[in-house]
């Protein structure tokens, strides 16, 4: 089988409410959809999502990298040789992990469809049928966050919540997270994500307060390059410290694992450069006793299927996942059997990623040149 053509299409999708992150407030969300055609008529889908300011990549740059560099290198290749495709892409250009992840996703989709199995079967098969779901409270106001969390609890969709604390005054942020936890009580677990905002001294103060206030995890408190601070904070506090931005490559995973610079790790398929590399990162972390969380880059339905299927193959995912992109996006360009029920996400089990494009929606949401 050979790859005949690759298209990368930017779509701009509406979201249910503004999403306030440390780095930006999202009022809409853009995805890059990959369509990979083969000589046997099997189409593979991939998807790339970028959270503004989170990483080095941007959606328009990713499209240029795919169109100009990666797609020409993959055309004529056998999409079922997935590791080979990853190595080839690494020879063509350094970094650009999100673009590589989207193209690998399409290769995985084709291979699994050709075999008639879900994508998870290519990564060892499912060890878990349901992934516990976390919801990010990103209104920036206690009353709105509490009301939203109560609604999720009533709907039985989420009982794990995360408050973003990386933007603005640290005392106000810490007080807001603790107030949310106090309002929700024992029915809900509340975590925080500082998205690298604090220096080590500030982080030490904040973690002490958060621990006393019943918060269960602190994600990426300091700058991603400050491995030594992450290591000291991890050693000092019993409150688990989770790495996110700091662990991108398998080499980062090895550095964090060998110095035990975190208790937990947020895995992200796009951040690590695809499903294969994410599984490799997960094994390195697990070998060091670092526990795993299924992170998101706010993927749509295609990307969420890929992430959910990969996370469903992990030996253990004690922190659950935050694959809530399809719940935040109020529309999408693909149909996928993603079921959110009983505080969990049930990964799709149709062949491949189980995604089918809605061509009318694709035409409607497609960004004009
Ligand atoms: C992050 O740092 O985890 C993912 C979802 C969300 O709301 O923010 C992120 C980025
Ligand atoms: Mg994070």
From TrEMBL:
Pathway(s) the chain acts in: Aromatic compound metabolism
InterPro entries: Chloromuconate_cycloisomerase, Enolase-like_C_sf, Enolase-like_N, Enolase_C-like, Mandel_Rmase/mucon_lact_enz_CS, Mandelate_racemase_C, Mandelate_racemase_N_dom
Entry keyword annotation includes Cell inner membrane: no
Limits of the Mandelate racemase/muconate lactonizing enzyme C-terminal domain: 143-240
One Pfam family this sequence matches: MR_MLE_C
SUPFAM superfamilies: Enolase C-terminal domain-like, Enolase N-terminal domain-like
PROSITE patterns reported in the protein's UniProt record: MR_MLE_2
Family listed: Belongs to the mandelate racemase/muconate lactonizing enzyme family.
Designated name of the protein: Muconate/chloromuconate family cycloisomerase
Naturally occurring in which organism (per UniProt): Acidovorax benzenivorans
């Amino acid at each position: 089988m050979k790859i005949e053509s690759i298209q990368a299409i930017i779509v701009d999708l509406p979201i249910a409410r503004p999403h306030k992150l440390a780095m930006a407030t999202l009022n809409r969300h853009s995805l890059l959809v990959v369509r990979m055609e083969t000589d046997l008529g099997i189409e593979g889908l991939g998807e790339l999502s970028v959270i503004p300011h989170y990483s080095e990549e941007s959606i328009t740059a990713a499209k240029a990298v795919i169109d100009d560099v990666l797609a020409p290198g993959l055309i004529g290749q056998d999409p079922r040789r997935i590791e080979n495709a990853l190595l080839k892409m690494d020879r063509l250009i350094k970094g650009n992990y999100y673009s590589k992840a989207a193209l690998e996703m399409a290769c995985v989709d084709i291979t699994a469809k050709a075999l008639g199995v879900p994508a998870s079967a290519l990564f060892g098969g499912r060890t878990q049928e349901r992934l516990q779901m976390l919801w990010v409270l990103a209104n920036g106001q206690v009353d709105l966050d509490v009301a939203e969390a109560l609604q999720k609890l009533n709907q039985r969709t989420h009982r794990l919540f995360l408050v973003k604390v990386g933007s603005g005054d640290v005392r106000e942020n810490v007080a807001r997270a603790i107030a949310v936890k106090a309002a929700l009580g024992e029915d809900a677990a509340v975590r925080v994500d500082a998205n690298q905002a604090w220096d080590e001294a500030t982080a030490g103060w904040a973690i002490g307060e958060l621990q006393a206030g019943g918060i269960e995890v602190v994600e990426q408190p300091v700058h991603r390059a400050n491995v030594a601070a992450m290591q000291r904070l991890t050693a000092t506090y019993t409150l688990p410290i989770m790495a996110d931005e700091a662990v991108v490559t398998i080499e980062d995973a090895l550095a964090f694992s060998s110095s035990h610079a975190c208790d937990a790790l947020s895995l992200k398929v796009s951040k690590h450069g695809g499903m294969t590399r994410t599984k490799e990162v997960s094994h390195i972390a697990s070998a060091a006793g670092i526990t795993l969380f299924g992170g998101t880059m706010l993927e749509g339905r295609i990307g969420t299927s890929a992430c959910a299927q990969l996370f469903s193959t992990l030996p253990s995912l004690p922190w659950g996942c935050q694959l809530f992109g399809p719940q935040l996006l109020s529309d999408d360009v693909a149909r996928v059997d993603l079921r959110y029920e009983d505080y969990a996400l049930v990964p799709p089990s149709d062949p491949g990623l189980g995604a089918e494009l809605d061509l009318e929606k694709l035409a409607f949401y497609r960004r004009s040149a």
